[in-house]
TrEMBL record:
<dbReference type="InterPro" id="IPR029046">
    <property type="entry name" value="LolA/LolB/LppX"/>
</dbReference>
<protein>
    <submittedName>
        <fullName>DUF4367 domain-containing protein</fullName>
    </submittedName>
</protein>
<dbReference type="InterPro" id="IPR052944">
    <property type="entry name" value="Sporulation_related"/>
</dbReference>
<feature type="compositionally biased region" description="Low complexity">
    <location>
        <begin position="225"/>
        <end position="320"/>
    </location>
</feature>
<feature type="signal peptide">
    <location>
        <begin position="1"/>
        <end position="20"/>
    </location>
</feature>
<keyword id="KW-0732">Signal</keyword>
<feature type="region of interest" description="Disordered">
    <location>
        <begin position="207"/>
        <end position="340"/>
    </location>
</feature>
Length: 438
C-alpha cells in the first residue's frame, strides 16, 4: 500500500512539473519559431509610446507602425504634447518623409529600412535576436525576454532588451541601452496585431498628406535623387539653397562659409532693383562654392530663372548677413560635445526668412542655423535618411563637409560641419528638441 501511495505521489509531482512548464519554451525553440514567423510575415500593425532619455528630460512620442508584404511601410511619430506628426512611407515610388502640417514631402531612393534598423519595426527586433549568437534569454511572466546587441545608426546604443508575448511572439516592450547600461530609448506597445488587413491608401503619399490625388493644392515635393523639385515658394526652389530672392527680383544673393570649412549658410535677401548679380563668398581657408557642401551651392531663381553663379569673395560676413526683418526666437542646444563652446550668435535672413546662426568652435567646428520658412521650399540635394528618434532628418554633403537638416514645429534646423561626427550631430539636434519641449 505504501508503495502504491509513493508511486501516486511521484506521478502527481511529475504531472505538476509538466503542467507548470506548459507553455514555456527554451531559447533555441523560441529562436526557431521566430525565424519561421519572420519568414511567413505578411502584415502587421502596432501602436505604442516611445520615450527618449537622451536629453535632460524624457520625451514621449506616440508611434504607429503598419507593414504590408513585400515592402510597404508606414510609421507615424506624434509629439504627445503638441500633436505634431511626421510620417515615413515606403511604397512603390520610393521612401518618403512627410510633414502634413507644413505640406512638405521629401523623397529618397533608399533601401530603408533594410539598411537602418528601427526600434519599433518587428523585422529589426527579430533579426537582432536571430543574428546575435551571444544573446541571453529569460522568462518574465507572460513574455520571453531576449538581451541582444543593438544595431542602430546611433553607435552609442549598445544593447537592447526585447519582450515578446508567449502567445504569438508579438513585441510588448523594448529597451535600448548605452554601454553603461543606461536606458536611452524605450518603446511600450499598447497593441500589436499580425495579419492586419490594410488598404492600399494606408501607404499612399497623397492620402497621408491629406491632399487629393489630382487637382487642388499639392504638397511640395522634394526629389533629391532626380535632382528636381516642384515648389510653391516664389523666392526659391530649394531648402538647401544658399541664396534666394524676394518675390519678383533677381537680387544680389550671397552665401558664406566660415574660416574652418563649415558653412555659415547665411543668405541675404534682395533689394527691389532686380539686379542679376548673384555672388557666393568664402572666407580664407574655406571650401569654395563649387559643391563641397550642398548648402553652399547656388540655387535657381523660380521667378526669373537666373542662375546664381559662385564666386570667391574675401568679405563673406559683410555680404552674406542681413538683420532679420521679423522677430525670431531660436533655441540653444543643451548639449555640447566635449571641448566645444559657442563662438558667436547672430540674427540673419536665410532664404528670405528671419533666423539665427550660432557658430561653435573647439574640438569640433560647426554651425547651427534656425529659421521659420514662410513657404515650404523643395530640396534638390541628394541626402541620406537619418532617424533621430523624435523625427527624421537628412544628411547631405560629402566627406569634406556635411549638413544635417530637419524640421520640427515649423522651424527648420541645419547643422553644418567639416568634422562633427553624425552621432554628435544627432545628439545636438536632440538637445535642441528637448529644449523646445520644456
Amino acid at each position: 500500500m505504501r508503495r502504491r501511495f509513493s508511486f501516486i505521489a511521484a506521478l502527481l509531482l511529475c504531472l505538476t512539473a509538466v503542467l507548470a512548464g506548459c507553455g514555456t519554451k527554451d531559447a533555441e525553440s523560441v529562436v526557431k519559431d521566430l525565424d519561421k514567423t519572420l519568414s511567413g510575415l505578411d502584415s502587421y500593425t502596432g501602436k505604442g509610446v516611445m520615450t527618449l532619455f537622451t536629453g535632460q528630460q524624457p520625451l514621449e512620442y506616440q508611434v504607429e507602425v503598419s507593414y504590408q508584404k513585400p515592402q510597404y511601410y508606414r510609421i507615424a511619430l506624434t509629439n504627445a504634447k503638441k500633436d505634431i506628426t511626421q510620417i515615413v512611407l515606403r511604397n512603390d515610388e520610393g521612401v518618403f518623409v512627410l510633414t502634413p502640417r507644413l505640406n512638405k514631402v521629401f523623397r529618397f531612393q533608399s533601401d530603408w529600412p533594410a539598411n537602418q534598423g528601427q526600434v519599433y519595426l518587428y523585422q529589426t527586433l527579430v533579426q537582432s535576436i536571430l543574428l546575435d549568437n551571444s544573446r541571453t534569454f529569460a522568462v518574465d511572466n507572460d513574455a520571453y525576454v531576449f538581451d541582444v546587441m543593438a544595431n542602430y545608426q546611433n553607435g552609442s546604443l549598445a544593447r537592447q532588451k526585447i519582450w515578446l508575448n508567449k502567445s504569438d511572439y508579438a513585441p510588448s516592450k523594448v529597451e535600448v541601452s548605452d554601454a553603461n547600461n543606461a536606458v536611452m530609448v524605450s518603446v511600450k506597445f499598447d497593441s500589436f496585431k499580425f495579419g492586419s488587413k490594410l488598404e492600399k491608401s494606408v501607404f499612399d503619399t497623397q492620402k497621408n498628406m491629406g491632399t487629393p490625388a489630382a487637382g487642388g493644392d499639392q504638397p511640395t515635393m522634394a526629389d533629391p535623387d532626380n535632382n528636381s523639385a516642384n515648389g510653391t515658394n516664389n523666392g526659391s526652389n530649394g531648402d538647401n539653397a544658399a541664396a534666394t530672392t524676394d518675390n519678383n527680383s533677381n537680387g544680389n544673393n550671397a552665401a558664406a562659409t566660415n574660416d574652418n570649412g563649415s558653412s555659415d549658410n547665411a543668405a541675404a535677401t534682395t533689394d527691389d532693383s532686380g539686379n542679376g548679380s548673384n555672388n557666393a563668398a568664402t572666407n580664407d581657408g574655406a571650401n569654395n562654392a563649387s559643391g563641397n557642401n550642398p548648402d553652399d551651392n547656388s540655387s535657381t531663381n523660380v521667378d526669373s530663372g537666373t542662375d546664381n553663379n559662385a564666386a570667391n569673395n574675401d568679405s563673406a560676413d559683410e555680404g552674406a548677413m542681413a538683420p532679420a526683418d521679423g522677430t525670431f526666437s531660436g533655441m540653444d542646444p543643451t548639449y555640447l560635445p566635449d571641448g566645444v563652446s559657442e563662438k558667436d550668435n547672430q540674427s540673419i535672413v536665410f532664404g528670405g526668412n528671419p533666423g539665427i546662426m550660432i557658430r561653435y568652435a573647439g574640438s569640433y567646428d560647426y554651425t547651427l542655423i534656425e529659421t521659420q520658412p514662410k513657404d515650404v521650399a523643395a530640396s534638390a540635394t541628394e541626402g541620406t535618411l537619418v532617424d533621430m528618434g523624435f523625427t527624421y532628418g537628412m544628411i547631405s554633403g560629402d566627406d569634406v563637409q556635411r549638413t544635417l537638416t530637419w524640421t520640427y514645429e515649423g522651424t527648420e534646423f541645419r547643422i553644418t560641419s567639416a568634422n562633427l561626427p553624425e552621432t554628435e550631430m544627432v545628439k545636438v539636434a536632440q538637445s535642441v528638441e528637448g529644449d523646445m519641449s520644456k
